Each structure stands twice: as structure tokens, then as C-alpha cells.
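User: Quick one: structure for sequence A, then sequence B.

Assistant: Sequence A:
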Amino acid sequence: MRIFLGLAIVGMVFAGGCAAGLHGQSENPSVPIAASYTTTDRAWIEITIAMDEQLVPLLALVDSRTGTAAVRDLGKKADASTKSELPELRRLHDQAGLPAENPHKGMEMPGMVSSSQVTQAGALRDTGFDNYFKKCLRDHLDQKKRLALGEKTSGKEPQTVSLASRVLQEQGQLSTLVE
């Protein structure tokens, strides 16, 4: 499993770098491409945006599907964290000159909530929903933690590394609530 995860991260970094290299200019010509963004920085930004955007539909189900205040509170905290990260990630995305089309959107990987998982969660209620939601969220948080740690360790662009550090703290706080 660790080998697969390592290969997946290397693949994401490579794909992010290839995507950035294929689109040498930003969609907005007034936004210069920042040379300080490395391939690692760019890949982390893209994959984290995709992970967060694909989590949002699952979070939207919590209020109508859960039967417990604890899961409702967890959903609200995860939603607030996700929605506070996304604008910052999108700003960094634009500064890095990344293409509008995210190559990681819809990608099958550990922790990436799929549309079929959202559909399955939507068919569940109460304890069944709660258990499935927590499993999906735990997988999401674990993968985001791994990726943010990789960015913090190997990234170079200061704003991106700072955001990865903040993500690590927030994911750690949320992870304690999932158990």
C-alpha cells in the first residue's frame, strides 16, 4: 500500500508538472507565472483543490442524513475548513499560472471522494450514513495529511508551504473528531 501511495504521489507531482508545462501561460494574461512555484507546489495546489471540491457534495449531505449532533458538528467543521481553504488554494492556483482545467479532478485515488461515494452516502441515513461518512472523511483527511506533509517538506513557494502547514494543523484537529 505504501509503495502504491508513493508511486501515486510521484505520479501526481509529475502530472502536475506536465500540466503546468503544457500550459505555459495563465488563463488570465495579467497574472504572471511565478517562477518560485515548483512542480511539487503546483501539483499540491491542484490535487488539494480537486480533493476539497470533491468533498463538498458529501459534506452537503450531512445535515439531512445524520441522526447525531456529533456527526452534524463534524460535518460543519469539515465544511468550514474546506471552504476556508478553497479561496486560498484558488488564489495560489492563479498565481502559479496553472491551467483552468484541473488534471486531478475526478481522479481515482485514496481519499478522493468520488461521485459514486456521494451517491452511496445519499442513499444512507442515520447510523449507516454516519459510519460511511466518517470512513470517507477519515480517508480524505489521511490522504490530505500525507500530501500536505509532502508539500511542507519538499515545496518551495512560501505561501504554499505555509498553507500546507495550516492544512496539517486543521486536518489533525478534524481527525481527532472522526474517531
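Sequence B:
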Amino acid sequence: MSRMSLSSLLPGMKVQRTVYGSRGEILIFKGGILTNAFIKKLEEHAIPFVYIDDGLEPDIQPRSSAGANLFKMNVQDVVAKETRVAAIRQVKNILLETKEAGRLVIEPQAVYSTVNQFTSELLSSKSLMVNLTDLRSQDDYTFAHSVNVCVLSLMTGITLGFNNEELANLGIGALLHDLGKVKIPDEILNKPGKLTREEYSTIQKHTTYGYNLILNSKNLDKTHALIAYQHHESYDGSGYPLGIKDDKFIEQAQIISIADKFDALTADRVYRRSFPPHEAYEMCAASGDYLFREHIVSAFLYNIAAYPSGSLVKLNNGYIAVVIDTPRGYSTFPRVNLLFDQNHRQLSTPKEISLAEAGSLFVTKVLTVEEIKALQQKIQGQ
């Protein structure tokens, strides 16, 4: 399975995952075959990428039957797609209704129920965090981002040993952390170029706006307001709005801050392309005792796969492999299938190994799109 940008899609490709629009509506089902009309529809909905079967339709399949399935992976997520779609709709309704009313419009019990559902699914999941971005489009970024941050934050809270009440407060705070952006003009939020100093100052006010909106609501806890207020503060005091540092702000805000950073880095935005997960992982890892408290960074990264399932990677022995999955706590040492030797010769049978157990083997790089295409062409020529 490959994640392909819209510009790379061709008629005849088979969709590996159902594609949803910004309102949660289905644009094309899993297993559907792309046509020019479908591709145009995806463009109209600003869908940034689609998961595609690497084997095309039968008349254009690689001659090698092994090659047809070489890159396909069955990727599982830590929470059900249906749960996330419902949560995205919920966050969207809260933000849009709050923007229209000028005050927080929320049904607390419904939000608690959503967070509890996430927590239940996370506690029963044994897989790592993978593919949280597959429901995002440019149109619904803020809503899907809030849901992703919620899931990432809850995973971190579980690792840190939070009790049910603490997890509930953390999850609700995560869903509402960007609430104040409803008061920021869309032309600033969606500006494709660099912000001016005045525009950046306006953006920064969303933390104060969110704090006041939540605090003025009688239905939520002050912790939720503090999360909205403090989630851009940094451990070294370089954040905003107050520039406080060390332990002078709540732990939940720090958890949501690193989740916010990771999800933002791995998302396509109007002003930049996304960073690959392994680069976002490295940036977060380097921020301990600088932007974030070290124990929070460790707990967060414990649940993050630096190389998501389906990634094609090169090992230090020169072999090329596809990532199967990653055991929790071994973020940079996935379980892989070896596909090609150091001379790029395809192995007759893929060999499965665990880098966490192999000892001397590790990933040295993630293959580029060009390198992957070259391998696919090599398979098709066999």
C-alpha cells in the first residue's frame, strides 16, 4: 500500500482505504477504481493524498506475481475510523456553533462520551500510533487536527499512568485546545505565505480567546481552560502568551503541546508540505528539556512509530525492507520484511526480522518517492 499525492494518481489505480470528505461523507469506497471523474472529485474536496494498492488493474499488473503484492501492507490504527469521523464532526459542530454564537456551545456529556470511547479503544489496542492523518484535508484541518491531538495526548497520558478522571480532562482539553481560533480571521489562519509580525501577534491571541471562552462556560473544568491558555508555553520560557517556564504551567498543557507539534509537522499545510514521520519524531526527540519536559517527551515518543507500517526503508547492511509494524517502546526498531539485498536484487522470498531483536541492524534512511518508483519499475521488468 502506498500513500500517493493527488498529482500522482492515475485512472485504473485501486483505492486501498475509503476516502472521506470534510463532513465525513464517503467520496470513494475502499476497493474502488479511480477514474478521471473520481480524481477530479478528490481535487474539488482538497484531499491531499490517497492510499493506493501498489498493484494496478490486471491488464497492467507487474509480470511477477510476487511483485504485485510486494509493497502491500495491512495497516491498523489504534482507534476505529468510525470513532474518529464522529469526533471530527463533533469538534466541527462545536467550533462552528461557537464562532456563530460568540460563546462556547457544547454538550459536555457528549464530549465526555467521545473521550471515553477513545480511551477505551486505546487501552485495548496493542499497536503503535500510525496513520492518524488519513482523514485530514485542507478544508477540515483544524477539526481533524484537534481529534488527532486528542488521541496522541490520551496515549501519552495512559503511558504516564493517568487515572480515568485525569484522562477525561486531558482528552477534553485536547479537543478544545484550539477553540480560540474561531476568533481569528480566516485570511490569517489560512494565509499561504509568511505571516507579518502583526498577523503572528493576532494568531497568538487564540490561546487567550480559548481560555476565556472555556472559563466563561459553566459546563467545563478550569483545567480545560488552562490547557487552551498554556498549550503554546515552552519549558525554556520561549513560548506564549506569558513566556512562563519550568514547572510553572500544568503538565496536561505540555502533553497537548508536543502532540500538537507532532501532528502539525506531519500535516500538509497551505504554506508548506508535511514532514515525514521519522523527521517529526527526531524533531520531537530533540526538544526534551528545551521545549518540553523530558519525561513527557519520553512518554509521547514511547507510543510513536518513527517508521509507520508500509514505509520502505534501507538498513545499515544495505538491504531494503518494508515496515510491518513496531513494538511499543521500540519506536525506531520496527519489524520488517526484507525485500532486496544490498545490490538491489529482489529476494526470492521476503524475510521477516525484528530490528528490536536483531541487535546489529537498524534503519539508516527512508526511501524517497523516486527510489520507490525505481524499485517498482524493476519489479515490473521481471
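The domain at 81-301 is CATH 1.10.3210.10 (Hypothetical protein af1432). The chain is about 40% helix and 10% strand.

User: Thanks, that's what I needed.
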